[in-house]
Amino acid sequence: MGRLVHFEIHVDDMERAKKFYGEVFGWTFEDWSEYAGTPYFGATTGDAGEIGINGALVQRRGVSPEPGQAMNGYACTMGVEDYDSTEAIILKLGGKLALPKYALPGMAWQGYYLDTEGNIFGIHQPDKHAK
Questions:
Q1: Cα-based angle 54, 15, 20 (whole degrees, multiple of 5)
Q2: 40-44 and 55-59 as β-strands: parallel, antiparallel, unpaired?
Q3: Distance between terminal CA atoms of the chain?
């Protein structure tokens, strides 16, 4: 099977993106630029024993997505413990609302945002009482 094992987020400003993802989700970064041949920072997103994958921030090689354009790629969704406090941090650090919080009835709260680089991502808080 072709299970997802790594992700890459294309960014315009590497330091700004590292600050955003580091402060919102607690990710840490390691410089792998020498191996990649381009600015490339490996992202550790959690403990190896937990469900999830690690990825990287890579220097964008073209124009940034235009606001309001249709999705062209994959949207990554991050699990969070507290939706509302995570949203507040996202907005405080320069992220923007793309699709407001909504219930996945009996399962979770979900919503989508734009990061500081114009990429869309989701956050997901499990909650069996969501409706």
A1: 60
A2: antiparallel
A3: 34
| Residue 86 DSSP class | H
Tens-digit pLDDT string for the chain (131 aa): 888 899 999 999 999 999 999 999 999 999 999 999 999 999 999 999 999 999 999 999 999 888 888 888 889 999 999 999 999 999 999 999 999 999 999 999 999 999 999 999 999 999 999 99
Spatial contact of 54 and 42, defined as CB atoms under 8 Å apart: yes
pTM of the model: 0.94
Alpha helices in 11-74 (DSSP H): 14-25, 33-36
Q: Do residues 122 and 112 touch, judged by C-beta distance below 8 A?
A: yes
